[in-house]
Amino acid sequence: MNLVYADEQGNLFDHPDWIALGRSGDMVVELMEDELIPLPDGATMVGLPHTRPIGIHAASGDMRPLPGQYQAVGALLPQGYTRLCIPGYMKTDKTQKLPLFGYSAVVWKDGGFYVAAQKCDDPERWNPLNCDPKELNVGVERLLAKYPENRLYQHLSNCALGYECLTASNTFLQRWEGAVPVSFSCNAGCYGCISEQPDDSGFPAPQTRMNFKPTVQELVDVMLEHLNAPDSIISFGQGCEGEPSTQAKIIIDAMREVRSRTSMGYININTNAGLTDHIRGIVDAGLNLMRVSTISALDDHYNAYYKPRGYNLANVEKSLRYATDKGVYTSINYLIFPGVTDREEEIEAMLGFVKRTGLKLIQMRNLNIDPESYLELIPKAQGEIYGMKQMLEIFADELPDVVIGSYTHVPPAPIKQPF
């Protein structure tokens, strides 16, 4: 498996005399054949700025950086795929932080690119290639003309056309899972937040957070337009907003208005679930689906990353248990990272968390972060590191009634396939 690298102009090459390596946490590791799959449709190849690739020089057997002014290369995977290793690299400037993406190890073998990843869900609906730009433009123009005063549609049009957000695009294409952002504020200070960063963070936020409080009517317009089919999903809680449950009152009022006019489709919230009283009100207003973001079921790791304000993991667990007990189809947006999520103590804690809360679905989501910054932030490993592939197998064995997937599904979820 040849090492893949990029020159200063961004041209990609493979080196027949160098064997590719990956990383698990801060350890450089060999890539196993059973960890590699062909580069999926919709994946993007990127250079890692301020890095050099690390590999094994085949003739000497030495592990070292590739000589020359070259960058390491990673793959950004579409939804449906879980990365098993990050690329093997070293930084040439340790003060520089990588852009907020989830980099996966990539190699060249058998005449094509392969990545260290595993398919955990059907990627078809979230393949960027299935979003037709012409059709999207027509949808944007139609809904902006129909609702010229609705600030949500104006905001989402930039998300769809400017940031190429697929959930925002679905809102204008009126299919699958659509977006209804609602909150400009948050009760967490997530490290590496993609919509709002402190000036001294060193991370450029890749998108802009919404800066207004929508009205109930603006929410109702978007929700009724999208809930037009039995399997349609409309979701509060997007990457362009803060925590949606901070705006519980307008969410509840909008949900009640919508449900008085249609029973079609599913209402979902993507949330940190820290505001348990607010979550209860939203659940009681008729919520169908709830996805809770988490990075760990260990307090010290969770707190280091989320920096929660006025809540803790116990509140999150309480919210999930309440929603599950009320018949909501509950899942977690599990932010995963090779060399961390597959630690022994992390696996044990998450298995207990899932069993206690009655979760139906675990959405494995590749964490978008600068690896060095993340590893410096969180606790050190306490036990064995199993590897991501074995971790997925443990989850499948220990949680036979829980679906392992990658994104929100209409219940009942697809039958879980064995790994």
UniProtKB/TrEMBL annotation:
Signal peptide positions (record): none
Taxonomic superkingdom: Bacteria
Any one GO MF annotation of this record: 4 iron, 4 sulfur cluster binding
Cofactor: [4Fe-4S] cluster
Domain (Radical SAM core) ranges: 181-347
Keyword annotations from UniProtKB, A to Z: 4Fe-4S, Iron, Iron-sulfur, Metal-binding, S-adenosyl-L-methionine
One Pfam family from the record: Radical_SAM
PANTHER family in the cross-refs: PYRUVATE FORMATE-LYASE 1-ACTIVATING ENZYME, PYRUVATE FORMATE-LYASE-ACTIVATING ENZYME
Protein name: Radical SAM protein
Organism: Paenibacillus sacheonensis
